[in-house]
Amino acid sequence: MIGIRALRDKISWKTTASSIFLVFNSFVWYLLTYAIFNVIVNGLPLPEIEKVGLFTAYFVSITVSAVVGPKLFLRARARFLYLWAFIGAIATLLLATSSSNSILVNTLLAFFLGASVGIGLPSCLSYLADSTYIENRGLIGGITWSAVGFTVLILAFLISMLGQWETIIAITIWRLFGGVCFPVLNRKHEQHVAQKSPNYLELVRKREILLYLFPWVMFSLINFAEAPMLERVFNTILGTDFFAFVQLAEFAFIGIFAIIGGVIADIVGRKRVVIAGFVMLGIEYAAMSVFFDSPLTLYLFLTLDGITWGLLFSVFFTALWGDLGENYEKEKYYVLGGLPYLLANFMYVLIKPYTSAISPTAAFSFASFFLFLAVIPLMYAPETLPEKTIRERELKNYIEKAKKEKEKYA
């Protein structure tokens, strides 16, 4: 366990606490806000085409604001991040004004909510990456996502006992809490000076970017495209609304395994953890394609899927793009890494109406095949954790074991 202690000792809470809290508060807010937005839109007495239009406005707004936001506020990033939390609180509170009588009002609300997410999320993640070293970025990402997993689980349970209006108020207060606490924690944070990053066209031409981006896009699309089918199967086999329990239970697994994945990624490298996650997903979908009507298989899927998300959130979503950004401004790297996950939610909206016409065996076989296919570029991707760091930790671990053996026979 010398590796774990060494990583722990390298965390400087004075420089990382504010950025960890910012990412933690922001993602809890995003996940809960999108959940209530989804409930509100689906609860409106509107034609399906208009509901899809509202989701379209939301996801288009995330995309545009994520690309434009870092350019507008990069030179005053810290001050903007103070303001960003309050923008999110206002956007959340305005959801209470949604109405079935005005599609224009609803569209503007959806667009503003999406902009409140996308405009600051890349800078938020970049701020965390700039507060860490490559040697401990996985661990700090794991700590952050473990906190997100457990907090979402607890808050989701608490607000399930509230009405829609009370839920909106609770999420707004949570976001305001982040806006108040972040400046307090960030008083002694040192500003990071970085080189200007390449433009997006140059980034997507880089081999190492593409070898990680392509599997991540494929994984995100498959995950959310399969969600309606999983919902149908779980609710049919294990009971109505059981899939809602599955989604909550996975946050418990994320809370446990995100920090484990981060520690492992800082010891053996990011690439091995990512490949293990993809292989695990491919196996679980392969099992589902044959035994999807077995409760045992469904519980196995729940367990493996939660573990995989824990591993991938701490590494793929948090650490990897910061590693690839090296000494550059990292906002654009996190735009590329974050948008596939954020936008893939739209696949659930588009595919859900057609779920009943799709065979579960075909759907899960398709997912398994493409997940295993996504492993191929990962095998050729370069390891982003320096080889020197991996070897030094292996040597320290070996020396520690040798000392223990010597003490045993002394």
Distance between the termini: 22 Å
Rg measurement, Å: 22 Å
Instruction: Give me the count of strands.
Output: 0
Class by helix and strand content? mainly alpha
Give the strand content.
Answer: under 5%
Q: Number of helix segments?
A: 16
Largest β-sheet summary: none
Global outline: globular
The H/E string reads HHHHHHHHHHHHHHHH
Helix content range: over 70%
The low-pLDDT segments are none
**Which oligomeric state applies?**
single chain
Mean pLDDT: 85
What's this, in brief?
By secondary structure, the protein is mainly alpha-helical.
If you had to describe this structure to a student in words, what would you say it looks like?
The chain has 410 residues and is mostly helical. It has helices spanning 2-9, 13-43, 48-73, 77-94, 103-118, 121-130, 137-159, 164-185, 200-205, 207-238, 242-268, 270-291, 295-325, 331-351, 360-380, 387-409. Helix 2 packs parallel to helix 7, helix 2 (13-43) packs antiparallel against helix 8 and helix 10 (207-238) runs parallel beside helix 14. The two termini are 22 Å apart.
